[in-house]
Design a protein that fits this description.
By secondary structure, the chain is an alpha/beta fold.
Protein backbone atom coordinates (compact mmCIF):
# COMPACT_ATOMS: atom_id res chain seq x y z
CA UNK A 1 0.00 0.00 0.00
CA UNK A 2 1.23 3.49 -0.81
CA UNK A 3 1.33 6.89 0.85
CA UNK A 4 -0.53 9.15 -1.58
CA UNK A 5 -0.97 12.94 -1.80
CA UNK A 6 -4.13 13.86 -3.75
CA UNK A 7 -4.80 17.42 -4.96
CA UNK A 8 -8.22 18.33 -6.42
CA UNK A 9 -11.10 16.57 -4.67
CA UNK A 10 -14.02 17.70 -6.85
CA UNK A 11 -16.74 15.70 -8.61
CA UNK A 12 -14.12 13.24 -9.90
CA UNK A 13 -11.13 13.58 -7.56
CA UNK A 14 -13.30 13.21 -4.41
CA UNK A 15 -14.62 9.72 -5.18
CA UNK A 16 -11.28 8.66 -6.74
CA UNK A 17 -9.42 9.56 -3.54
CA UNK A 18 -12.10 7.78 -1.49
CA UNK A 19 -11.52 4.61 -3.54
CA UNK A 20 -7.80 4.79 -2.83
CA UNK A 21 -8.62 4.95 0.90
CA UNK A 22 -10.98 2.00 0.46
CA UNK A 23 -8.18 0.02 -1.22
CA UNK A 24 -6.01 0.52 1.88
CA UNK A 25 -3.71 3.37 0.81
CA UNK A 26 -2.84 6.23 3.15
CA UNK A 27 -4.32 9.28 1.41
CA UNK A 28 -3.83 12.92 2.34
CA UNK A 29 -5.82 15.36 0.22
CA UNK A 30 -6.08 19.06 -0.45
CA UNK A 31 -8.67 21.17 -2.26
CA UNK A 32 -9.55 24.87 -2.22
CA UNK A 33 -13.14 23.92 -1.38
CA UNK A 34 -13.69 23.07 2.33
CA UNK A 35 -16.69 20.85 1.51
CA UNK A 36 -14.42 18.63 -0.61
CA UNK A 37 -12.03 18.25 2.33
CA UNK A 38 -14.88 17.25 4.62
CA UNK A 39 -15.99 14.61 2.13
CA UNK A 40 -12.51 13.04 2.05
CA UNK A 41 -12.37 13.01 5.84
CA UNK A 42 -15.77 11.34 5.97
CA UNK A 43 -14.40 8.69 3.59
CA UNK A 44 -11.50 7.98 5.95
CA UNK A 45 -8.77 10.08 4.34
CA UNK A 46 -6.62 12.76 5.93
CA UNK A 47 -6.67 16.40 4.83
CA UNK A 48 -3.92 19.00 4.77
CA UNK A 49 -3.99 22.82 5.01
CA UNK A 50 -2.19 23.23 1.67
CA UNK A 51 -1.15 21.26 -1.41
CA UNK A 52 2.47 21.33 -0.22
CA UNK A 53 1.51 19.80 3.11
CA UNK A 54 -0.59 17.12 1.42
CA UNK A 55 2.33 15.78 -0.64
CA UNK A 56 5.03 15.80 2.04
CA UNK A 57 6.33 12.24 2.47
CA UNK A 58 4.12 10.91 -0.35
CA UNK A 59 5.29 8.01 -2.55
CA UNK A 60 2.73 8.93 -5.20
CA UNK A 61 1.24 12.38 -5.94
CA UNK A 62 -1.99 12.62 -7.93
CA UNK A 63 -3.69 15.77 -9.26
CA UNK A 64 -7.28 16.00 -10.55
CA UNK A 65 -7.78 19.67 -11.45
CA UNK A 66 -10.06 21.52 -13.88
CA UNK A 67 -7.72 22.68 -16.68
CA UNK A 68 -4.16 23.16 -17.94
CA UNK A 69 -3.72 26.50 -16.18
CA UNK A 70 -4.52 24.94 -12.79
CA UNK A 71 -2.17 22.03 -13.45
CA UNK A 72 0.70 24.33 -14.46
CA UNK A 73 -0.03 26.55 -11.44
CA UNK A 74 -0.09 23.73 -8.89
CA UNK A 75 2.99 21.90 -10.22
CA UNK A 76 5.22 24.66 -11.58
CA UNK A 77 4.59 27.96 -9.83
CA UNK A 78 7.09 29.14 -7.29
CA UNK A 79 6.96 26.78 -4.34
CA UNK A 80 4.83 24.46 -6.51
CA UNK A 81 4.63 20.71 -6.06
CA UNK A 82 7.69 19.86 -8.16
CA UNK A 83 9.74 22.00 -5.84
CA UNK A 84 8.21 20.48 -2.70
CA UNK A 85 8.88 16.86 -3.75
CA UNK A 86 12.21 17.30 -5.57
CA UNK A 87 14.15 15.43 -2.85
CA UNK A 88 11.66 12.62 -2.09
CA UNK A 89 10.97 12.02 -5.82
CA UNK A 90 7.55 10.31 -5.70
CA UNK A 91 5.79 9.00 -8.80
CA UNK A 92 3.71 11.88 -10.24
CA UNK A 93 0.34 11.33 -11.92
CA UNK A 94 -1.93 14.02 -13.38
CA UNK A 95 -5.45 12.73 -14.07
CA UNK A 96 -6.96 16.09 -15.17
CA UNK A 97 -8.06 16.60 -18.78
CA UNK A 98 -5.73 19.29 -20.14
CA UNK A 99 -4.06 20.41 -23.36
CA UNK A 100 -1.25 18.21 -24.66
CA UNK A 101 1.21 21.11 -24.49
CA UNK A 102 0.66 21.71 -20.74
CA UNK A 103 1.00 17.96 -20.09
CA UNK A 104 4.32 17.85 -21.95
CA UNK A 105 5.64 21.03 -20.28
CA UNK A 106 4.88 19.76 -16.76
CA UNK A 107 6.26 16.29 -17.55
CA UNK A 108 9.45 17.78 -18.98
CA UNK A 109 9.90 19.91 -15.85
CA UNK A 110 9.38 16.83 -13.67
CA UNK A 111 11.95 14.89 -15.69
CA UNK A 112 14.41 17.74 -15.43
CA UNK A 113 14.04 17.48 -11.66
CA UNK A 114 14.76 13.72 -11.86
CA UNK A 115 11.18 12.46 -11.49
CA UNK A 116 8.78 10.51 -13.68
CA UNK A 117 5.29 11.74 -14.47
CA UNK A 118 2.27 10.20 -16.15
CA UNK A 119 -0.58 12.05 -17.85
CA UNK A 120 -3.53 9.81 -16.99
CA UNK A 121 -6.88 11.40 -17.90
CA UNK A 122 -10.01 9.36 -17.34
CA UNK A 123 -13.29 8.46 -18.94
CA UNK A 124 -16.38 7.10 -17.23
CA UNK A 125 -17.82 10.15 -15.48
CA UNK A 126 -18.75 10.55 -11.84
CA UNK A 127 -20.43 7.14 -11.75
CA UNK A 128 -17.20 5.52 -12.96
CA UNK A 129 -15.25 7.53 -10.37
CA UNK A 130 -17.57 6.42 -7.57
CA UNK A 131 -17.58 2.75 -8.63
CA UNK A 132 -13.84 2.58 -9.45
CA UNK A 133 -14.68 1.58 -13.03
CA UNK A 134 -12.92 4.46 -14.82
CA UNK A 135 -10.95 4.00 -18.01
CA UNK A 136 -7.47 5.53 -17.74
CA UNK A 137 -5.60 6.56 -20.89
CA UNK A 138 -2.00 7.00 -19.88
CA UNK A 139 0.92 8.80 -21.47
CA UNK A 140 4.49 8.51 -20.20
CA UNK A 141 7.42 6.13 -20.25
CA UNK A 142 6.79 2.41 -19.92
CA UNK A 143 8.64 2.09 -16.60
CA UNK A 144 6.54 4.83 -14.98
CA UNK A 145 3.39 3.22 -16.39
CA UNK A 146 4.35 -0.13 -14.86
CA UNK A 147 4.84 1.58 -11.48
CA UNK A 148 1.57 3.53 -11.62
CA UNK A 149 -0.70 0.86 -13.04
CA UNK A 150 -1.53 -0.88 -9.75
CA UNK A 151 -2.56 2.45 -8.14
CA UNK A 152 -4.73 3.34 -11.13
CA UNK A 153 -6.38 -0.11 -10.91
CA UNK A 154 -7.71 0.88 -7.49
CA UNK A 155 -9.67 3.70 -9.19
CA UNK A 156 -10.51 2.15 -12.54
CA UNK A 157 -11.22 -0.96 -14.55
CA UNK A 158 -9.43 -0.38 -17.87
CA UNK A 159 -5.91 1.03 -17.77
CA UNK A 160 -4.33 1.71 -21.17
CA UNK A 161 -0.79 2.81 -22.00
CA UNK A 162 -1.39 5.19 -24.93
CA UNK A 163 2.24 6.12 -25.66
CA UNK A 164 4.81 8.70 -24.55
CA UNK A 165 4.24 11.94 -22.59
CA UNK A 166 1.01 13.70 -23.66
CA UNK A 167 -0.42 10.63 -25.45
CA UNK A 168 -3.01 10.08 -22.71
CA UNK A 169 -4.28 13.64 -23.16
CA UNK A 170 -4.32 13.23 -26.94
CA UNK A 171 -6.57 10.14 -26.68
CA UNK A 172 -8.82 11.92 -24.17
CA UNK A 173 -9.27 14.97 -26.42
CA UNK A 174 -10.30 12.73 -29.35
CA UNK A 175 -12.68 10.78 -27.07
CA UNK A 176 -14.39 13.86 -25.68
CA UNK A 177 -14.67 15.51 -29.10
CA UNK A 178 -16.58 12.42 -30.27
CA UNK A 179 -18.74 12.36 -27.12
CA UNK A 180 -19.56 16.08 -27.42
CA UNK A 181 -20.84 15.60 -30.97
CA UNK A 182 -22.63 12.36 -30.14
CA UNK A 183 -24.55 13.89 -27.19
CA UNK A 184 -26.00 16.56 -29.49
CA UNK A 185 -27.01 13.89 -32.01
CA UNK A 186 -28.85 11.91 -29.35
CA UNK A 187 -30.58 15.08 -28.08
CA UNK A 188 -31.76 15.92 -31.62
CA UNK A 189 -33.07 12.36 -32.10
CA UNK A 190 -35.12 12.43 -28.91
CA UNK A 191 -36.56 15.89 -29.58
CA UNK A 192 -37.57 14.82 -33.09
CA UNK A 193 -39.01 11.59 -31.68
CA UNK A 194 -41.18 13.57 -29.24
CA UNK A 195 -42.50 15.76 -32.06
CA UNK A 196 -43.24 12.68 -34.17
CA UNK A 197 -45.38 11.39 -31.31
CA UNK A 198 -43.11 8.53 -30.23
CA UNK A 199 -43.06 7.18 -26.70
CA UNK A 200 -39.64 8.16 -25.33
CA UNK A 201 -38.95 4.85 -23.57
CA UNK A 202 -39.90 2.91 -26.70
CA UNK A 203 -37.59 5.01 -28.87
CA UNK A 204 -34.84 4.46 -26.32
CA UNK A 205 -35.38 0.71 -26.07
CA UNK A 206 -35.25 0.25 -29.84
CA UNK A 207 -32.30 2.58 -30.51
CA UNK A 208 -30.28 1.04 -27.67
CA UNK A 209 -30.22 -2.20 -29.66
CA UNK A 210 -29.96 -0.51 -33.09
CA UNK A 211 -27.18 1.29 -34.94
CA UNK A 212 -27.60 4.62 -33.11
CA UNK A 213 -26.60 3.09 -29.77
CA UNK A 214 -23.85 4.88 -27.85
CA UNK A 215 -22.78 5.77 -24.29
CA UNK A 216 -24.81 9.01 -24.55
CA UNK A 217 -27.91 7.10 -25.57
CA UNK A 218 -27.79 3.98 -23.44
CA UNK A 219 -26.21 5.28 -20.21
CA UNK A 220 -26.62 9.05 -20.23
CA UNK A 221 -29.75 9.90 -22.20
CA UNK A 222 -30.12 13.72 -22.39
CA UNK A 223 -33.93 13.46 -22.54
CA UNK A 224 -35.53 13.01 -19.11
CA UNK A 225 -36.98 9.54 -18.50
CA UNK A 226 -35.29 6.65 -20.28
CA UNK A 227 -32.08 6.31 -18.22
CA UNK A 228 -33.03 7.02 -14.57
CA UNK A 229 -29.43 7.63 -13.39
CA UNK A 230 -28.66 10.28 -16.01
CA UNK A 231 -28.36 14.01 -15.10
CA UNK A 232 -31.46 14.77 -17.23
CA UNK A 233 -33.53 13.36 -14.36
CA UNK A 234 -32.09 15.68 -11.72
CA UNK A 235 -32.38 19.02 -13.51
CA UNK A 236 -29.01 18.35 -15.22
CA UNK A 237 -26.96 18.47 -12.01
CA UNK A 238 -23.47 17.25 -13.03
CA UNK A 239 -22.14 14.76 -13.95
CA UNK A 240 -19.78 16.55 -16.23
CA UNK A 241 -20.20 20.30 -16.30
CA UNK A 242 -20.84 22.03 -19.63
CA UNK A 243 -17.96 24.42 -18.85
CA UNK A 244 -15.59 21.43 -18.75
CA UNK A 245 -17.00 19.88 -21.92
CA UNK A 246 -16.64 23.23 -23.70
CA UNK A 247 -13.03 23.36 -22.50
CA UNK A 248 -12.42 19.90 -23.97
CA UNK A 249 -14.06 20.65 -27.34
CA UNK A 250 -11.98 23.82 -27.54
CA UNK A 251 -8.88 21.72 -26.82
CA UNK A 252 -9.86 19.51 -29.75
CA UNK A 253 -10.25 22.59 -31.94
CA UNK A 254 -6.79 23.92 -30.99
CA UNK A 255 -5.31 20.48 -31.69
CA UNK A 256 -7.15 20.28 -35.02
CA UNK A 257 -5.92 23.74 -36.04
CA UNK A 258 -2.35 22.85 -35.05
CA UNK A 259 -2.43 19.65 -37.11
CA UNK A 260 -4.44 20.96 -40.11
CA UNK A 261 -7.38 18.60 -39.47
CA UNK A 262 -10.91 19.59 -40.53
CA UNK A 263 -13.50 19.02 -37.73
CA UNK A 264 -16.68 20.86 -38.79
CA UNK A 265 -19.00 18.86 -36.50
CA UNK A 266 -16.84 19.59 -33.45
CA UNK A 267 -16.74 23.28 -34.41
CA UNK A 268 -20.54 23.35 -34.44
CA UNK A 269 -20.66 21.41 -31.16
CA UNK A 270 -18.33 24.00 -29.59
CA UNK A 271 -20.64 26.83 -30.64
CA UNK A 272 -23.69 25.05 -29.16
CA UNK A 273 -21.97 24.34 -25.81
CA UNK A 274 -20.81 27.97 -25.82
CA UNK A 275 -24.47 29.02 -26.16
CA UNK A 276 -25.37 26.81 -23.19
CA UNK A 277 -22.64 28.48 -21.12
CA UNK A 278 -23.70 31.97 -22.25
CA UNK A 279 -27.28 31.15 -21.22
CA UNK A 280 -26.04 30.60 -17.63
CA UNK A 281 -25.85 26.79 -17.59
CA UNK A 282 -22.05 26.39 -17.37
CA UNK A 283 -22.38 24.42 -14.12
CA UNK A 284 -25.09 22.10 -15.44
CA UNK A 285 -24.24 18.74 -16.96
CA UNK A 286 -23.33 19.03 -20.67
CA UNK A 287 -26.38 16.95 -21.63
CA UNK A 288 -28.37 20.13 -20.84
CA UNK A 289 -27.68 21.01 -24.49
CA UNK A 290 -30.92 19.03 -24.96
CA UNK A 291 -32.84 21.91 -23.31
CA UNK A 292 -31.24 24.49 -25.62
CA UNK A 293 -32.29 22.51 -28.69
CA UNK A 294 -35.74 21.82 -27.27
CA UNK A 295 -36.26 25.55 -26.65
CA UNK A 296 -35.82 26.09 -30.38
CA UNK A 297 -38.69 23.82 -31.40
CA UNK A 298 -41.26 25.84 -33.28
CA UNK A 299 -44.96 25.36 -32.71
P1 LIG B 1 -14.47 19.85 -10.36
O1 LIG B 1 -14.51 21.29 -10.69
O2 LIG B 1 -15.62 19.20 -9.68
O3 LIG B 1 -13.15 19.54 -9.46
C1 LIG B 1 -11.94 20.23 -9.56
C2 LIG B 1 -11.48 20.52 -8.15
O4 LIG B 1 -10.19 21.14 -8.20
C3 LIG B 1 -12.41 21.50 -7.42
O5 LIG B 1 -12.88 20.89 -6.22
C4 LIG B 1 -11.51 22.71 -7.14
O6 LIG B 1 -11.80 23.33 -5.90
C5 LIG B 1 -10.14 22.08 -7.15
N1 LIG B 1 -9.06 23.03 -7.39
C6 LIG B 1 -8.95 23.95 -8.37
N2 LIG B 1 -7.77 24.62 -8.27
C7 LIG B 1 -7.14 24.07 -7.19
C8 LIG B 1 -5.89 24.33 -6.56
N3 LIG B 1 -5.07 25.28 -7.01
N4 LIG B 1 -5.55 23.60 -5.49
C9 LIG B 1 -6.38 22.64 -5.01
N5 LIG B 1 -7.59 22.35 -5.56
C10 LIG B 1 -7.95 23.07 -6.63
O7 LIG B 1 -14.13 19.09 -11.74
P2 LIG B 1 -14.25 17.51 -12.04
O8 LIG B 1 -15.55 17.23 -12.70
O9 LIG B 1 -13.82 16.75 -10.84
O10 LIG B 1 -13.14 17.41 -13.20
C11 LIG B 1 -11.76 17.38 -12.90
C12 LIG B 1 -11.02 17.05 -14.20
O11 LIG B 1 -11.49 15.76 -14.69
C13 LIG B 1 -11.28 18.05 -15.34
O12 LIG B 1 -10.11 18.23 -16.08
C14 LIG B 1 -12.37 17.35 -16.17
O13 LIG B 1 -12.32 17.78 -17.54
C15 LIG B 1 -11.98 15.90 -16.01
N6 LIG B 1 -13.07 14.92 -16.16
C16 LIG B 1 -14.29 15.12 -15.57
C17 LIG B 1 -15.29 14.17 -15.75
C18 LIG B 1 -16.66 14.34 -15.13
O14 LIG B 1 -17.59 13.57 -15.51
N7 LIG B 1 -16.86 15.25 -14.19
C19 LIG B 1 -15.06 13.01 -16.49
C20 LIG B 1 -13.79 12.82 -17.04
C21 LIG B 1 -12.81 13.77 -16.87
Amino acid sequence: MAIIGFIGLGNMGGPMAANLVKAGHTVTGFDLNPAALEALQAAGGAVAPSASDAVKGAEVVITMLPAGEHVRQVWLHQGGLLDVVKDSKPLLIDCSTIDVESARVVTAAAEEAGMTMLDAPVSGGTVGAANATLTFMVGGDAGAFAKGESILKDMGKNIFHAGGPGAGQAVKICNNMMLAINMIGVAEGFILGDKLGLDRDTLHKICATATSNSFALSNYCPAPGPTPASPANRDYAPGFMTALMLKDVKLSQSAAAATGVSTPMAALAASLYQEVVDAGDAMKDFSVVYRLLESRVKG
